[in-house]
Specification:
about 350 residues; alpha+beta; Alkaline Phosphatase, subunit A; Gyrase A, domain 2; 2 domains; two-stranded antiparallel sheet; globular
């Protein structure tokens, strides 16, 4: 199959041999901090030497801008090999250029590495769209470009600029909360995990203990609220009754899964997150972390712009409306009428 043949080419080796230099003179990277910052972690200085990964560590390519280059090269091969866009039946191709995510996590949004990654991605997009124009025909395809999240500033960057920020640790949260509950209720290790701003309890212990689960949750909420960096904590089974801004309630509810979600959800102060002192992550409700771009272009799209709030869940119904087909059965969004109303 064509994908197997593509993998046999081991294209990552070609990029590893080049190492990673900035595409332009480094002194022109004016949207970044200095190249080397302690909060970016180890090996954060250009040039990034990659040759040691040849034929050994193919995963490393994803944390360089070359991961995007290979991804879009593969997308072109998929279009060619599957004859996409060559008849009057609509084809759909989803492409995830994820190296921006990996580079951003490792070095942060203000790094030279991420600025260089986006500059290179811009060139990669130019090449890809030129290919679409040639292979499918300009005006014969629709593109939407978005993201699954934004990102927080690295706490070290914030502190360097005299702004409040900090980190919390899942391990510390579990340890401290278990110690508190053991001392207060004589329940041992009733907290299983802290993950994705959620506290998971051992229900075998909470359902069969001498103290009701509601009492344990209430005490846990009050304890967690006193920890550094915590803005609020809510019982996810009663989130509709919590004194929270509606936007926070909506986000917690939208992310809830009865089989997988935790029992408590905690909201951190702005510019605090669960992670390490180097690099950054995402997952907070704040606009800097949740505001993402959305661009439509091509067939069926008229020029325009809007500052109205829309959601990533609006993309699928918008595409369905453009194609005059039924929305997917899990749709919770709405068509973006600025696009669909012609």
């Amino acid at each position: 199959m064509w994908i197997a043949d593509y993998n046999k080419m081991k294209l990552a080796n070609k990029f590893y041999a080049k190492n990673w230099e900035t595409m332009y003179p480094i002194n022109t990277y004016t949207n970044s901090t200095a190249d080397e910052k302690a909060y970016e972690g180890k090996n954060s200085t250009f040039p990034h030497l990659l040759a040691q990964n040849i034929d050994k560590n193919f995963d490393a390519i994803r944390s360089t801008p070359y991961g995007n280059t290979i991804t879009l090269d593969l997308a072109k091969l998929a279009i060619l090999s599957e004859d996409l866009g060559q008849d009057n039946i609509t084809d759909f191709l989803a492409v995830s250029c994820s190296s921006t995510d990996y580079v951003g996590h490792a070095y942060g949004p203000n790094s030279v590495e991420l600025e260089d990654t986006y500059l290179r991605l811009d060139k990669d997009f130019e090449d890809f769209f030129n290919y679409l124009d040639k292979k499918v025909g300009r005006g014969n395809y629709t593109v939407f470009l978005s993201a699954d999240h934004a990102v927080a500033h690295v706490p070290g960057f914030m502190k360097e600029n005299k702004l409040p920020a900090g980190i919390v640790s899942d391990r510390d949260i579990v340890f401290k909360l278990n110690a508190f509950l053991n001392e207060k209720f004589k329940v041992n290790n009733v907290v299983l995990k802290s993950m994705n701003n959620q506290i998971h309890f051992d229900h075998d212990k909470t359902d069969n203990g001498s103290v009701s689960f509601d009492v344990i949750k209430a005490a846990s909420i009050e304890f967690l609220k006193r920890l550094d960096g915590f803005a609020n904590v809510v019982d996810v089974s009663r989130v509709s009754l919590a004194t929270l801004p509606e936007v926070q309630k909506r986000m917690i509810t939208n992310g809830y899964n009865a089989r997988r979600s935790g029992d408590l959800y905690y909201i951190l102060n702005p510019n605090w997150f669960n992670g390490s002192s180097t690099g950054t992550t995402h997952g907070n409700w704040n606009p800097y972390d949740a505001h993402i771009p959305l661009v439509f272009m091509g067939w069926g799209i008229k020029p325009g712009a809007t500052n109205k709030t829309h959601y990533m869940t609006d993309i699928a119904p918008t595409l369905a409306a453009l194609l005059h087909i039924q929305m997917p059965n899990g749709t919770v969004g709405e068509p973006i009428t600025e696009i669909t109303n012609k």
